[in-house]
Amino acid sequence: MYRVTFVSSLFAADQHDQEQSQETLSLLLECLVQMNERLLRARSDVPLLYESGVRYDPEPLGQENWQDCVTTWRRKRGDCEDLASWRAAELRVRYGLRARCVYTWRRLPNGVLMYHIKVEYTGPDGRTHEEDPSRRLGMNSAAA
Known about the structure:
The chain is an alpha+beta fold. It has one domain (18-59, 66-137). The chain contains four helices and five strands; from the N terminus they run H-E-H-E-H-E-E-E-H. The chain has helices spanning 18-42, 69-75, 80-95, 133-136, and strands at 55-56, 77-78, 98-107, 113-122, 128-131. It has a three-stranded antiparallel beta sheet with strand order 3-4-5, with helices on one face. A two-stranded parallel ribbon has the order 1-2. Strand 4 and strand 5 (128-131) form a beta hairpin. Helix 1 (18-42) packs across helix 3 (80-95). The chain is globular, with a radius of gyration of 15 Å. 26% of the residues are buried.
């Protein structure tokens, strides 16, 4: 496996430009969704997320390894951005729905911003829905 690492001054506890951090987060999430879309189109063997046997598994605080859907499937575990980006790509590719990753955040006592990634999609009925793959795959409510 080949690893690509992004090192950024964004998302720090003393970060003054939270808006720029969040805009960057949205861009990176969309990139991961599009990577997963390509993989899903190229690999018919990749199962649906909820049928894959994958479980939610958080990374240690301060560590962020973003996995594509094939890596997540092979490892049988992923955290919120791994699961949400797979599900958003799956909704686009397999079901033709408009889907994207969205996030919530909270500030921890040490000042660090903790983000949680979910999926927002427009259903066949035209209504907007929000889905949390992490909760569905084992994250407890206290972790969000």
